[in-house]
TrEMBL record:
The gene is mutY. Keywords: 4Fe-4S, DNA damage, DNA repair, Glycosidase, Hydrolase, Iron, Iron-sulfur, Metal-binding. The lineage of its organism: Bacteria, Pseudomonadati, Pseudomonadota, Alphaproteobacteria, Rhodospirillales. The keyword Protein transport does not apply. This is Adenine DNA glycosylase. Pfam families: HhH-GPD, NUDIX_4.
Length: 347
DNA sequence: GATTCGTGGGG
DNA sequence: TCCCCAAGAAT
């Protein structure tokens, strides 16, 4: 099948099945670059369902890129808490300030977008196509999967990326590039799914090599990922006489960078004994262990936590005390909220 | 090219 | 329970 007709076929399918998403312009409407950018950053490695409420609250609180640029970084981190990949929040803020500094308009081409913080190859193409209707080949996980099946690409990811990208580019039409970009991603999200693809409903079924071979689910091929190390640590639940709890801000870079934390000792492969954990506590206190173990799985770390509780009279240097009913006002990532929950429950 | 970066849902 | 993975970027 000629590639032009494949794009036409997909666009016809899209016109019939176009999904309503909070950041998506309705048919015939012009997309708002700010909304497109904000949603694309949030959607990096994150599901539509998870993004929904965050997108709504960000948009309500910061209706424009200028408003977001003017916000304190800590407010952005707090609003982002729970969504993960916190470098995105720091880059979001940095990017907003860069755009505000150039008058509030986003660059309208891929090259210009690519220079902005937090915008890589995929996001630059997505914004160029969706917000500015420029011809740009978007390559995300959906497109990788669709194209790998369509051509039954034998090489494995991530090495196959350049090959898949060239194929994706050759399929991208000059007409309606913004709709095409959303269409091919929607196809991957709703029809050409990782498992149990709904090939019977696919507009590209006739052209699909993997469908013909009956092994769509075997693509894209992937090289196995390294296994996740198990690390152990102790969280120190330090309470003040008024019932507030001691928090600390993490360093700006690295894991959970810039976010708040319940202080822990070093994350290490060997489990900590009670005495060892008491010996390296942030401050001297009558530490007692709290019941319940916490497990939190990051992309590359399987973290196991135990809890020690201590009563303090004064807040340690470099830390702060927060009342339990105000913890929502702090930039606490999910793993730290798990600790809070376990500590409150365990007394 | 390989690593580092979160979290929650689905099968 | 476990594994996969999601509109990837930065280093």
């Amino acid at each position: 099948m000629p590639k032009e007709s494949m794009a036409e076929q997909l666009l016809a399918w899209y016109d019939r099945h176009r999904r309503v998403l909070p950041w998506r312009a309705k048919a015939g409407e012009t997309a708002d670059p700010y909304r497109v950018w904000l949603s694309e950053i949030m959607l990096q490695q994150t599901t539509v369902a998870a993004v929904g409420p965050y997108f709504a609250s960000f948009l309500a609180r910061w209706p424009s890129v200028e408003a977001l640029a003017a916000a304190p970084l800590d407010d952005v981190l707090t609003a982002w808490a729970g969504l993960g990949y916190y470098a995105r929040a720091r880059n979001l803020h940095k990017c907003a300030q860069a755009v505000a500094a150039r008058g509030g308009d986003f660059p309208s081409d891929e090259a210009g977008l690519l220079e902005l913080p937090g915008i890589g190859a995929y996001t630059a193409a997505a914004i160029a196509a969706i917000a500015f209707d420029q011809r740009a080949a978007v390559m995300d996980g959906n497109v990788e999967r669709v194209v790998a099946r369509l051509y039954r690409v034998q090489s494995a990811l991530p090495a196959a990326k350049p090959e898949l990208r060239a194929l994706a580019d050759s399929l991208t039409p000059d007409q309606r590039p913004g709709d095409y970009a959303q269409a091919v991603m929607d196809l991957g999200a709703t029809i050409c799914t990782p498992r149990k693809p709904r090939c019977a409903l696919c507009p590209w079924r006739e052209a699909c090599a993997a469908f013909k071979a009956g092994d769509a689910e075997d693509y894209p091929r992937k090289t196995p990922k390294p296994e996740r190390p198990i690390l152990h640590a102790t969280a120190y639940w330090m309470t003040m006489p008024d019932g507030s709890v001691v928090l600390r801000r993490r360093k700006e870079e690295g894991l959970l960078g810039g976010m708040m934390e319940i202080p822990t000792n070093t994350w290490r492969a060997t489990p900590w004994t009670l005495d060892e954990a008491r010996g390296v506590a942030p401050v001297a206190a009558a530490w007692r262990d709290l019941p319940g173990n916490i497990r939190h799985v990051f992309t590359h770390i399987d973290l196991r936590l135990t809890l020690l509780s201590g009563s303090l009279r004064k807040v340690p240097d470099g830390m702060l005390a927060a009342s339990l009913d105000k913890l929502g006002d702090y930039a606490l990532p999910s793993v730290m909220r798990k600790i809070v929950s376990a500590a409150v429950k365990g007394g």
